Amino acid sequence: MGKGYRQGRLGEEIRKVISEMLLREIKDPRLSSGMISISDVDVTSDGSYATCYVTVLTAGKDEEAKREEEEQVIEGLKSAKGLIKKEIGRQIKLRHIPELLFKIDTSMEYGRHISEVINKLGIDHEE
Question: Which tens digits make up the pLDDT trace of 86-99?
């Protein structure tokens, strides 16, 4: 079943609030090491949970260092969860603020993997 219109709007508003806070308000050193983006927020149909997908852009780091930095970013966001929920409640008029869950967005790696598989197959694609 598809995502409802209300959940989609609420997810987008939550994404905007968190993104703005990452730029201006949250001063955690774990969140200032690289470029962090909230790529999507999925809200459950009852509005009790919001899964926030986080993209950490790291340049020139090996896989282990990248995973370590992603873990640090998730820990930093978890520690700032109370502040984020307070700001969401202030900016978006809700009776119940959803519980925030933070996950690393792996869609970019998956897209790169699919591109590599297609390239290995030698399939020409028209643009």
Answer: 999 999 888 899 99
33: its two tokens: 């090491």
* C-alpha dist (Å) from residue 57 to 66, 71, 122, 123: 9, 13, 29, 29
CATH architecture of 5-121: 2-Layer Sandwich (3.30)
pLDDT in tens, 51-85: 999 998 877 677 888 888 889 989 999 999 999 99
* Helix, strand, coil fractions of the chain, as percent rounded to 5: 50, 20, 30
User: Kind and range of the H or E element at 41?
Assistant: strand 35-43
| pTM to 2 decimal places | 0.81
Collect all residues with Cβ–Cβ distance below 8 Å to 110 and sequence separation of at least 6: none
